[in-house]
């Protein structure tokens, strides 16, 4: 699948080098900061779960107390581990006592930092070992019962009731789905806490909770054993709780997670500083758990024109690739997003879409690209819509996409019903089966429309990336370079949850993850103190 477009390698190098410079600049800025979500994630990985008498998650109880006292910038782990050592308690017991008013973290007998660091590394190793065990479970399942072929057929369930979601997910798996995505309840991305327990009332989707993850994972394992194919589970760790939900997904063996700070900035008005910090840690967790991330460039074409703004999708893919690499995420786990949002009334629109899809495939040859179906130009004419989805499926098999989010002919009318999903699955299965090796048989005419279009988009993407490199990503987002949406560096939701790290800041899980993922050591994670020397 490589080299059909005869792309100029200098243009590729230019774009990738600019994207790398952009990512390094962002990483330099965020490395000196933490967030309330990162600190809550540390507590969850220490083993803290549950809620207090008012329904507030225990990680929030502790982080809120430390934040109010002005002590969170040293890291939540320091204070909790000190209490664990002083009173010989587990992290969960410490949290429960704090919630009941029986323990105040700033009134704990002093424990030398060296002892806290040693115990912190032990706890981090144990926590990450739990995640690794879940990754090994996935590999064992796939080895034992097998899996579907790429492009994976991806469908959504979104009833609001996790138990009804299970019914629909099992039906979809029996009909041929490879990935089940449980859409989150409307607005959950803007909650600065993670709801608790099994939920039966959502709005436009189902709340993402660790218990809901567990329920759906068990259901998909059962139906996977029945159909003889491992069924992947997808949910969202975008929003104000990116790293927390990433950790919950890792602990419950999710396989795919939406993870894209740029999406949150542009389409949910989440503060750019906050979400880029959260993204870095969440992607480290995703990487170690073997979870494939999905990015949201496809959404750019819902607010901007698919022809005029095609290069912004490519530029963003380059940036997301480089940010992911800085978090230790390998290309095989980068489900970089794009979409079939071409206007069906446009002459040669299919050729333009083939050029874009093939361009993405050749620029990111090892990534399981996430390809989104027509939405913007779906009209409610279900017959035309079914044809649009058929063309979308044809482009996917022709260009070797990795994850196929199936189009619904009722897209413009309502949330998909089970029969809508069945028809979508039949559409994709028919085209994938009949055109399985089409891409191996087709070459594009040198100098033809497809080759010229791909070259044009690549050059425009490189030009845009060089402008972003010069201005910096924050300034570029303020200027509205992506999706025709402008956001403020100091605006949006969640900025109050960003803190500059104190000199004694300690996050044992970041330190351990950096060692295990082979990432450079970073000040403020404990590893500069001689604890993590090889």
Give a written overview of the molecule.
The protein has 534 residues and is an alpha/beta fold. It has a domain at 1-31 and 295-471: TIM Barrel (Alpha-Beta Barrel), CATH 3.20.20. It has 20 helices and eleven strands. Helix 15 links the parallel strand 9 (370-372) and strand 10. Helix 7 runs parallel beside helix 16 (418-434) and helix 15 crosses helix 16. It starts with 8 loop residues before the first helix and ends in a 17-residue tail after the last helix. Residues 5-510 form the D-Lysine 5,6-aminomutase alpha subunit domain. This is Lysine 5,6-aminomutase subunit alpha.
Question: How confident is the prediction overall: mean pLDDT?
Answer: 95
The N- to C-terminal Cα distance equals 41 Å
Oligomeric grouping of the chains: single chain
Write the CATH homologous superfamily of the domain at 1-31 and 295-471: D-Lysine 5,6-aminomutase alpha subunit
Pfam families: Lys-AminoMut_A (PF09043)
InterPro entries: Cbl-dep_enz_cat, Lys-AminoMut_A, Lys-AminoMut_asu_sf
Protein name: Lysine 5,6-aminomutase subunit alpha
Domain D-Lysine 5,6-aminomutase alpha subunit: 5-510
Can you give me a brief rundown of this structure?
It holds the Pfam family Lys-AminoMut_A. By secondary structure, this protein is α/β, with parallel strands linked by helices. The chain has 20 helices and eleven strands.
